[in-house]
Every structure is written in structure tokens, then in C-alpha cells.
Amino acid sequence: MLKKRLVGVVTVKDGWAVQSFGYHRYLPLGKPECLVENLDRWGADEILVQVIDRSKNGFEPDFKLLEKLGKLGLETPLIYAGGVRSEVDGVELIQLGADRIVVDAMLHDNLEVVRDLSERLGAQALIASLPLSWKEHGIKWFDYRYKTSTQISNEVLGLIQSGIISEVLISDWEHEGMPGGFEEKLIEKFPLKDANIIAFGGISKPGQMRALLEYSGVAAVAIGNFLSYQEQAIQKYKEALTNMPVRLAKYKSTFSLIAKTDV
Amino acid sequence: MKIYSVGIVDYGMGNHASVVHSLRDIGFRVRVSNNAADLDAADVLMLPGVGAFPSAMASLHERGLVDYLHQQVNLGRPLIGICLGMQLLANASYEHKHTIGLDLIPGNIVPFADHGGHIGWNTLEFSQNNSLWSESDGEAFYFNHSFCYQGPSEYQVAVTQHLIPFPSIIQRGNVVGLQFHPEKSQLAGKTLLKNLIEGLVHA
């Protein structure tokens, strides 16, 4: 049976890993590669590195960072987000070590690029990022470059439904960094009931994770800031979710992994 | 004391750092190359891969690696395909269009019944008792694919449950395909790789 996942998120701004609060306030944490190595060692199910200063400034993806991360030889699947503009960018990111990539600005600007990426890399490699908020009249889709909110376009919903993209990263951007802040209505009222969702933004408590993971469409919950407050936080969350369909907590093994050799 | 070597076939699809890191970590020597002379020195060949089937086959053809891999398998050299690399071992795939594969294990690559993907950690169920796989039975591995193998049961070593059971390890002689990513499956992945490579070189 396919397990539900706990995704560790590292947010990068101006070359530094940061804690992010509501898409407007940032606190530095250190070198991104150190945080990624920790998540790899601590047994996250996937690691999402989101570089938030790329599309907003018209920059290309952070290839240098990916190159550094690729060389780490991570044992955990790596997702990259930030500044993906073309099929060429996507191919380069995969060659540098990303297992999957996230598209965000292209969902507003050019859906043809998203289709090309899917054709080249396969749908399983593509995730659509939708920063959402819950307002009186329903779900609003945020374009962080221009600070505008609109309805999710039918074209984007159609694209997701067509299977060109494998999962949707729903970020509750207003409650990002707020303990327990994730607005569950973003999942409950999301218009596509059969979409595979990664929920992110203000997810900090095991009870909240449990409630989200109980939705059939929620394939994963992503945790950012709250992993920075303690060692082995992913494993502690897993322990608290023992009776859920998640991969079990494993801290370490004493099993020898050295290959036998002929003498 | 002999240290076994693994030749990673580089055909321009995906990053090999994680595979290299995992293999070195468990005690193997590793070389990444698209050059026959380099790969000839390896005890085991490995075909990783990320991407879509048609572009991967085109890349193998462009580099003259299709004939090379056939020759090596005919000589009895073990070959392990990972994820897309496993799918390439089959007769053909229907990803985007019908594309002929390496034709090393009978069967085809088809979309899942619901045309969705299978992404995340899932367990393996082995059809036979075999010491090669015993430590991996029931362990979770990382999958990331939208198509799967469909072929004769005699080549299916393990299945994984997703809507219905699908083959997650296939084998024909010294040619083995793993639909998941052992190099991204942490301890479970390294354990499986260690047992598999040692089993193949000692077979």
C-alpha cells in the first residue's frame, strides 16, 4: 500500500535557508545544503527545496544550489521549486539531481511550457504549486510576484485533471509559519476531488497532520519551519503518526552495509 | 581481496550522484561512462534513468548503447535497470507513443489503469522465497512513475500494491529491473542493492 509522506521543506532566499512567515517575513537559518543534509539523515520521505527569489526577480532556477545538492549524493528524493521557465530548465534541474520539479509562475504565464515539461520528463516529475487562501467566497489563488489573488483558472484545473501533472502543492501562504495555522477548507473545498495533494503552510501538530492525511486526496504533508526547532523532528512526527499509513520511524540501524568481498 | 565494480551507463538522462554515493557507501567501485571500454571493466552494469521513455531510447541509440547492452547481456554480464532504466528493458512502451525498447525482458510498459501516477513509498511482495531478496520483503521503497510493466508472470519477481498489484521487480537471467529508486530509498535501498549485486556476481 502506498504510504502517505512527510515532506521536509527548505526555503531559500538570497542564497540562505530561511524561516518564512506568511510570504513576507524571513529569518535566516543557515546554509541550505546543511539543512538538506539533516533532512536526508533524519529520514524525511521527500525533501522540497523552494527558492523563493527566482521568478519574482526574473532569475533562472538556482542551478548552482542544485549542483551542490546533487553532489551530496542524497538518499532521499529531492523536489526543486523556483524559477522554472522552460523544458530546458527542467531537464537541467533533473540532470543536476532533482527527482521532481515544481512549476508555479508558468501556471500563470505559459501552460504550453508545462505540457512540454511533462512530455520530456514524465508527469510523475511535475508538481503544480498553488498558493491559496480561504476567503469569504471561497478559495483564492495567489500570484506572489504581483501580490494578486484570483480564482484558480479553468485552464489550470483542466491541466491538473488531464494528468499532465502528478500532484498539487497547496500552500496556505497566509498561515505559513503559524503553528497549527493551515486552513483545512483549502483541502475540503478544493474543486478537484481526485487530485493528489501535498498540503503545506502552518502544519506543525501531529493531530493536524493526522486530520489532513485522512483526506483521501492528501498524499503528503509538507513541513518547513517546524522542523528547525528540534533534532530528528521528522522521526518524532512519524512516531506520533504510528497508526497512520506513513513509513515507520527509523532512527538508525546497526546493520552492516559493507559488501562481502572475495579473498 | 576483490572489490566488485559497477558500471553506470550514462546516456544523459538524470543525475547519477545518488546511485554512485549509495554504491560506494556499501563497498563497490563505481564508474559512470557511455564508453564501452570503460564499461567493459565492470562486473555489473547499471542503467538508471529519469524521464520519458521515447527520449531515453533516443539517447541510448544516439550513443550507440543499444547494441552494446545487447552484446553485454549475451555475454552474461549482469545488468540492473532502475525506474525508467527498468522500463527500457522491456519490448516496448506506450508512453506518449509506441516506442521499441531494449527488448531484453518480454513485456510492455503501459499506463496505470487509472492513468494516474504512483509516487511515494510502497512495499515489495516477493513471489518466491529467495535469500537474495529476503531482507527486502515487506520493506518500503521510493517509487516515482506513471507507467508500469505488463508481461509474463515468469519474469515477475516482486509485486507492489497500487489499485491492483503491478510488477515492481522483473528478472530474466542476469537482467534485473527495479521499478523503484533504491538509491533514494535510504537504508532499505542500500540493503537491496548490496544483496542484489553480490547475488548477481556470485550467480
Kindly list the characteristics that best describe this protein.
heterodimer; A: 263 residues; alpha/beta; TIM Barrel; 8-stranded parallel barrel; 9 helices; B: 203 residues; Rossmann fold; 8-stranded mixed sheet; 4-stranded mixed sheet; 6 helices; 14 strands; 32% strand
Description:
The complex is a heterodimer of chains A (263) and B (203). With 263 residues, chain A is α/β, with parallel strands linked by helices. Chain A has a single domain, classed as TIM Barrel (Alpha-Beta Barrel), CATH 3.20.20. Chain A is 28% helix and 27% strand. Chain A contains 9 helices and 12 strands. An 8-stranded parallel β-barrel of chain A has the order 1-4-5-6-7-10-11-12, surrounded by 4 helices. The longest helix of chain A has 11 residues, at 111-121. With 203 residues, chain B is of the alpha/beta class. Chain B has one domain: Class I glutamine amidotransferase (GATase) domain (Rossmann fold), CATH 3.40.50.880. Chain B has 6 helices and 14 strands. Chain B has helices spanning 17-25, 36-40, 53-62, 65-74, 84-87, 186-202; strands spanning 5-9, 29-33, 44-47, 79-82, 92-93, 99-100, 108-111, 118-123, 125-126, 140-145, 147-150, 156-162, 164-172, 175-178. An 8-stranded mixed β-sheet of chain B has the order 2-1-3-4-14-13-12-9, with helices on both faces. In chain B, strands 6-5-7-11 form a 4-stranded mixed β-sheet, with helices on one face. In chain B, strand 5 and strand 6 (99-100) form a beta hairpin. The longest helix of chain B has 17 residues, at 186-202. Chain B is globular and about 50 Å long. The mean pLDDT of chain B is 93.
